[in-house]
Amino acid sequence: MAETFGKILRPLLPETKKIEDLPLAVTSDTKRDPNNTMKVIAWRGKKNLSVEDMQKPLITDSKDAIIRVTSVAICGSDLHLYHEEFSGMHSGDVLGHEFMGIVEDIGTDVKDIKIGQRVVVSAVIACGYCEYCKKEQYSACDNTNPSKEMEAFIGHRCAGFFGYSHLTGGWQGSQAQFTRVPFADINLLPVPDSVTDEQVVMLSDIACTAWHAMELGEVKEGQTVALWGCGPVGLIVIMWAKHRGVKRIIAIDHIPKRLEKARELGAETINYDEQLVIPTMLEICKDGPDVCIDATGFRYAKETIHKIERLLRLETDATSAITEAIYLVKKFGNISVIGDYYGLTNHFPIGALFDKGITFRAGVVCVQKYWKLLLKYILDGHIDLTKIITHILPLEEALLGYQLFDEQKNDCIKVILKPDIDYFQHKQI
């Protein structure tokens, strides 16, 4: 799919530097230990995951660290791969990008990280010294993604990501017992023993992504905020919005358990299966929200036309939530998009976006920009991320975790996998 849309988009893009001319600081091709294996969750096709043995990773570059994974989440964006709706997956690829663990080994040029430290790992792989990293725009790193397809698809390459296809570099994922982390000094955050994995593992991705929504939307004290999507990221958005002192936050979803959790966290809610979003919002918030946040993503089509066009591959992305946000947000209001979007969409209301003077900002989180501040908030007791965790399972039960999360069974909101816990003694909370 990336190659197809790359061909469509390429003539419309300005000339960029050829990929072969761009220096790469590191390779995702990892050295392996022929004498030691580990368990991994391997992707074998649509909704087809397998627990398999793989040779353990070894230090490949002098700035690497090897992490023994102690906790790894199933992220909402992992479901795009699970459904085979994101390009670049190869059979046998290891999934997972939201994780933490213990440093088992380091390269000779690692300066700030020590063997034995407990660390959170950034899902976004940065080099720390390119033009973008110097500006703390880590998700745009020039040096961690060798994908020619990415450059053809969007005009540039973005940063590499763990376990997220060869479009983002082909890096081994973290739903495994061990993972190699390049540029360890910038991509690892040491955490104290006074906190549990469950309190901090989401700093790897979604806790920072939710904060990124605050930053993109410039959320301030006293504002009214509307949120589309009460999955794990959206629920943390509610936490951070309350932390920032918003007057009201109105959350939109259709899954009863998630709406219930949103209310527990202090949000008003709209169930779009029972209420029309635009008139209901204008009834309870006459002038419209100051800020609208989209935490849904490209797979979630509400309107029949988007469902049909996605089915026929006439578009890749449904923008139902964004469309509602554009119509509802106040004139000269802000829209913040942190849900994953991927390719092309139809029926985008660009006229309303223009005429209302809306500030529209979107993008992948720059984890390393935020995680030290957010760790402090966790340590000071300002936020408890464990409130959204519903299932803790051994790594070998990843397929069950994916099924529960994907189908919202057993009131599932957030799944954490534990490579170290016994297969028969797993814990559900």
TrEMBL record:
Necessary cofactors: Zn(2+)
Organism, as annotated: Rotaria sordida
Gene3D superfamilies with a match to the protein in the record: Medium-chain alcohol dehydrogenases, catalytic domain, NAD(P)-binding Rossmann-like Domain
Alphabetic keyword roster: Metal-binding, Oxidoreductase, Zinc
Domain of life (superkingdom): Eukaryota
SMART domains xref list: PKS_ER
A matching Pfam family: ADH_N
GO molecular function: oxidoreductase activity; zinc ion binding
InterPro entries, per the entry: ADH-like_C, ADH-like_N, ADH_Zn_CS, ER, GroES-like_sf, NAD(P)-bd_dom_sf
Name of the protein this chain belongs to: Enoyl reductase (ER) domain-containing protein
Entry similarity comment: Belongs to the zinc-containing alcohol dehydrogenase family.
Domain Enoyl reductase (ER): start-end pairs: 45-338
